[in-house]
Design brief:
The chain has one domain: Beta-grasp domain (Ubiquitin-like (UB roll), Roll), CATH 3.10.20.30. Helices cover 10% and strands 30% of the residues. It starts with a strand and ends in a 9-residue tail after the last strand. It is mainly β. It has one helix and five strands, in the order ββαβββ.
């Protein structure tokens, strides 16, 4: 199945759910990633039940904390 992942067209090995896609794509820290599917950010508890379809646009988002600025 062809998906757009982080802006790149990718041929997957048959991942059917978001959880399977995270494993297939060897996403580091899957517990720390947010997933946007076709413009909608998914709730983590739906990853295993959210089915992917041909042409879906998937973004893996990592939110990083920063330091502080001192003057």
């Amino acid at each position: 199945m062809k998906l757009s992942i982080n802006g790149k067209e990718v041929e997957t090995n048959g991942s059917q759910t978001v959880t399977e896609l995270l494993k297939e794509q060897k996403v580091k820290w899957p517990d720390m990633v947010s997933v946007e599917l076709n413009g909608t950010i998914l709730k983590r508890e739906t990853f295993a039940s959210t089915k992917l379809t041909e042409g879906d646009k998937v973004e893996f988002l990592y939110f990083m904390g920063g330091g502080c600025v001192t003057n």
